[in-house]
Amino acid sequence: MNRRSLTAFGTIAGAASFVSAGIGGGSFSIPWSTIDGGGVINSSGGSYTLSGTVGQPDAGATMTGGSFSLTGGFWAGVDSSEPCPADLTGEGDLNFLDVSAFLSLYGMMDPLADFQPDGNFNFLDVSAYLAAYAAGCP
After folding, report:
1. Over the stretch 35-85, which tens digit does the pLDDT of each residue have?
2. Domain count across the chain
3. Residue-wise DSSP of the chain
4. How far, CA to CA in Å, does 57 sit from each of 51, 60, 78?
């Protein structure tokens, strides 16, 4: 046998003895870890927004430390209640401030005021906003 053959044989024999020692009940551990994609991908058109995430990073119990807490999983802590399209100020209450916000957005031709998602700003958008306002929030 030449030197290379002996070295290769020694490496294989050493690896085999390591594996057999592990199978025999040696002390070893498998550390827990994740590969996280993170972030949210958003796509919007008109008054609709679609958000998505791939994977479920760090699902489990809430971790706390000091005044901070972190809960893992699919968008933990995200409000999943139905949206209220007419609530343009986002405070969960429909009032004159929402109407004022709509008129301001409409005047600037902001896509948020395009309640008939057709790219045009006309009476149909005003009518659709007023219908959404009259329907109230869920």
Report:
1. 555 555 666 777 777 666 555 555 566 777 888 776 666 566 665 567 889
2. 1
3. --HHHHHHHHHHHHHHHHHHHHHTT-------------S-EEEEETTEEEEE--S-TT-SSPEEETTEEE--STTTT---SPP-TT-TT-SS--SHHHHHHHHHHHHTT-GGG-SS-SS--SHHHHHHHHHHHHH---
4. 16, 9, 15
**Pairing between strand 48-52 and 63-65?**
unpaired
In a domain, 28, yes or no: no
Q: What is the pTM of this model?
A: 0.44
**Cα 52 to Cα 40: distance, rounded to the nearest angstrom:** 6
Asked whether residue 20 is domain-assigned, the answer is no
Report yes or no on 43 lying in a domain. no
131 belongs to a structural domain:
yes
Q: What is the per-residue pLDDT for 34? A: 53
- How distant, in Å, are the alpha carbons of 31, 33, 77, 78 from that of 62? 20, 17, 11, 14
Instruction: Look up the domain containing 112 and give its range.
Output: 96-135
pLDDT tens per residue, range 108-119 = 999 999 999 899
